[in-house]
């Protein structure tokens, strides 16, 4: 059944180091990120412990340039992408090496750029804005019948 394969991954975690931006000879930019994602499990004594998992992420083009500009070590991010397996011969001649990287389609910056603000204790900052909400969709939505009230709404 060709064409039914799915290669999709979504992770949220924190950068373990500053982004590294590189340029290929063609001029294409690629940014390399390293993201730590904790998973929780019970140990032998029944206590919950965190186990860190580390992922290498590649972000191509203008999105990668933005990552290099605005992200730094410790910053929380959400990554949506695909897995990419690669294999190469070790430079010291000791054999083949393998790696699975995430190639990001989208990177969502979480938290604040400077780490300050009104955090909720989990490393993520609440989004705040001074721009009022657009309520134009609701204008004129009041009941128009004479004597109609909220009690006339069936839910």
- How many domain units? 1
Could you state the CATH homologous superfamily?
A: Nucleic acid-binding proteins
The CATH architecture is Beta Barrel
Radius of gyration: 23 Å
Shape descriptor reads extended
Element-by-element helix/strand order: EEEEHEE
Cross-sheet strand order for the largest sheet: 1-3-4-6-5
How many strand elements?
Answer: 6
Percent strand equals 35-45%
Question: Could you provide a short overview of the structure?
Answer:
By secondary structure, the chain is mainly beta. The chain has one domain: Nucleic acid-binding proteins (OB fold (Dihydrolipoamide Acetyltransferase, E2P)), CATH 2.40.50.140.
Walk me through this protein's architecture.
The protein has 155 residues and is mainly beta. The protein has one domain: OB fold (Dihydrolipoamide Acetyltransferase, E2P), CATH 2.40.50.140. 6% of the residues lie in helices and 43% in strands. It contains one helix and six strands. The chain has one helix spanning 61-70, and strands at 9-15, 20-23, 29-42, 48-60, 76-89, 96-109. It has a five-stranded mixed β-barrel. A hairpin with a 5-residue loop joins strand 3 and strand 4. It starts with 8 loop residues before the first strand and ends in a 46-residue tail after the last strand. The model is unreliable at 116-134 (pLDDT under 50).
